[in-house]
Design goal:
Elements lengths: L2 E10 L2 E11 L4 E5 L6 H8 L7 E6 L2 E2 L5 H7 E4 L11 H7 L13 H13 L15 H14 L4 E5 L7 H16 L3 E5 L3 H7 L2 E6 L2 E7 H4 L2 H8 L3 E5 L6 E5 L9
The structure holds adenosine-5'-diphosphate.
The site of adenosine-5'-diphosphate has 10 residues, from helix 1.
Amino acid sequence: MRLSTERLSLSYNGRDAVHEVTLDLESGELIAIVGPNGSGKTTLLRGLSRLLRPVAGHVLLDGDDIRAISSRSVARRLAVLPQEHPEGVDITVNELVWRGRAPHQGILQRATPADHEAVDWALEAADVHHIASRPLGSLSGGERQRAWIALALAQQPRVLLLDEPTSFLDVQHQVEVMALLTRLNAEGMTIIVVVHDLALAGRFMQRVIGMRDGRIAFDGPSREVLRPEPLEEVFGVPMLVLEDPESGLPVPLPRHPEADAGP
Ligand code: ADP
């Protein structure tokens, strides 16, 4: 499933937050979007998932304009995990994950074996099977995040968009979420994820897109774009990129603002 944009502009109150972005997100890719706060990452995800109407340009899902496809039909192919989840949702993990089946179910239709299978798979994949009967409010931050991921997975999407899914997680849970995304991607899912942690992007992502001021500043294989110059241009701070001695993967780090000084 291919997701692309053609000169896509998205704005709030007449001001462009994403400006004339043209992108091709190919089937089966694992892509990170990085950039400073306010650079338009969340807005781009909203546009890609049909939550925000473009002021100019198009979003195409397998060549069809996403505005011309019903939201139910989009939801059967594409799932989005927003940065913030509604608070105070007093339901169990199982109930939450079942909501992901709505786009596949007819009105008043009873759950089918395919629905049960999808929910079981989602609970298993996100590693929340053992806490399926727990209310969301009783879970740790990491468990709750995995429950929301399971909700998105129950849609059985071909494309998964995630907005900073690891931001509030400890290192162990960050790595678990990234490993899950890698696994889903290996099974053929196209995954686009906004990440703040450049080291995580370097370790887990094949392609990295850098945004600044609503525009694409760089886009390419992580080894090619996670270099000091492109990163400095996007983040506006001096950067150092080390090479992981085990994997050879790039490990970007901000430099100390006072040259050659240590902590
Ligand atoms: P990022 O995800 O990279 O932090 P956003 O997409 O959230 O960036 O924001 C891009 C720009 O759009 C910013 O200037 C932000 O202030 C503005 N913006 C985001 N959401 C809204 C909104 N709901 N109303 C008005 N302006 C917004």
